[in-house]
Amino acid sequence: MAFLLLPAAVIPFLFLRAAEARTEPQACEGLSVVERLAERDPAEVERVVRRQEEEQRKKQAAADREADRRKRLAALEEGSVWEHFSDYLILGDSRAVGFTVYHLLDPARVLAGGGLTIRNIPDYLDEVRVWNPAYIYLCFGLNDTGVGYWDTPEEYAAEMRQRIDELRQAAPDARIIISSILPATEAALKRSPVWRKIPAFSKAVSGLCGSNGVAFADNSVIAKECMDTVWDEDAVHLQEAFYPYWAKNLLTAAVEADFSYDTDTRTFG
Questions:
Q1: Which residues are within 8 A (CB) of 236 and not within 5 positions of it... i.e. 6 or more apart?
Q2: I want to staple 150 with a disulfide (CB 3.0 to 4.6 A). Which of 43, 156, 172, 250 is the partner?
Q3: Which of 253, 154, 268 is closest to 211 using CA atoms?
Q4: Residues with Cβ < 8 Å from 104, sequence gap 6 or more?
Q5: What is the pLDDT of residues 43-79, one digit of tens each?
Q6: pTM score
Q7: In the chain, where are the structural domains located?
Q8: What superfamily would CATH give domain 85-268?
Q9: Cβ-count burial 37-58 (b if 16+ within 10 Å, e if not)
Q10: Which of 84, 87, 120, 123 is nearest to 104 (CA)?
């Protein structure tokens, strides 16, 4: 077998080319997307850079908002819960009256009364316009389920939507927070079985909230935990000890609303 003999000067050259061939793909793989695009289309480079910068800004903004949200929620744990109510109105029934009966909140900002339902909301629209609050808390339901105006939860939710529209016209920039309907105790249910409709009415209202730009404060957990200790002798109304828990739940819903509400679409993300 014959061997091809190469000049000694050629051999190092061949080894050098082979080394370059092995390293060239690695060098290409190490190039960034922007560097590779720069060789073909400088305008595309600019678009990619701008897109990356915008994505980074959005990520940072989201991180800042989340940090702010956590900070505000943590603040609710400090001091008196009543100190955190600012620029608000509470509309509701006799249960909401407790906020003033126990001297917890400013009576001028609690538009509530015994026997009231959401059909009484239009009676307060002038005051809502004058106050033009940042937050409106709706604390109805006890009478709504017993008065017989609405045969089904769906009918009740439909009228609640109408009331929301009226409030939004009166105070366009207000965050509206609907309190879930506080339950009645077993003793009260035996006396008035009509209140057994409370969970269904409350669920129907919760279903309309997010897509209609309204926050929902779910009180089911705190009501269950306090059921045996904070109800009055009538088994329907509440003792003062319950109101800080209720208030904190309303405030928490308001904070969450501030950080998830889309002002353009009037919905929650």
A1: 142, 184, 185, 188, 195
A2: 156
A3: 268
A4: 82, 98, 240, 243, 247
A5: 777 788 888 888 887 787 767 777 777 887 787 788 8
A6: 0.76
A7: 12-60, 85-268
A8: SGNH hydrolase (3.40.50.1110)
A9: beeeeeeebeebeeeeeeeeee
A10: 84
